[in-house]
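Hey, quick one: can you model this chain's 3D structure?
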Amino acid sequence: MNEELTVNAVFPRVTLVTAILNGELFFRDALASIRAMRYPNLEYIVCDGGSTDGTLEIVEANRDIISQVIVGKDKGMYDALAKGFAQGTGEIFGWIGCDDLLMPWCLSCVVTFMKLIPDCKWLTGIPAVFDAEGRMVAMAQVAPRYRRSWIRRRMYSFIGLGVIQQESTFFARTLYERTGGLSEFREMRNAGDFNLWCRFAEHAELYQTEVLLAGFRLHGANITGDGSNYLKEARAVRIPAGLFMGSTYSYLTFLWHRFRRRPRLGDLLVRKLKPR
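Sure thing. Here's the predicted structure for all 276 residues.
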């Protein structure tokens, strides 16, 4: 019991959820990325919507890192995720698609940042994209900066100032519960995360770290590939030349923060580890 209390004090519990349906093609890679993090207080919940391929066999072969498996029909990805988070006991929440990848240092960096900056209730890293082979093919050259009022106004999307990448975003359980989480977005197919971010922005500032945390795997059969339905669900604001404007704003803000010496994750870690 004392050992468990010590682990909880040093490594806050993190709940990760994966919603999956017939995802055997890439699921092993996603699990390998979770295993590679070696985070000692991870609660990993898998919600399977009734797979008929080899998904459940892969789940059973990896039960040593899977805390709970929820099997049963659902209304879609966000309904399954809502079920998983309802069972979560972690201080920090996040989700990963069965075809996406996390960096080995991901949770260590997320937890460290949120512990050193108590005001941080949700956090995102540098967006990245992998191909079907798991090779990184794109990433932002400068860590994006997201203006809270613009998030609320639905300006961050692929037709606006750029997306807030779900795979790279983590949030406090208290924020998730305070805003109602995914409960209102259970029947959405594509833009549940977009609507959740807009809800979060009503209550808290989104912090950004200049660290690559995770990446979206683009393989041609992604659920989020339905752009028209995404726009319908998101009700995003279209901004001409928005991606250019978003990257320009991010770069200028990056320079401003460097000038002001606003604490960055690297600075905080060095300061924490520096001998006294």
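One thing worth noting: The chain has one domain: 2-273.
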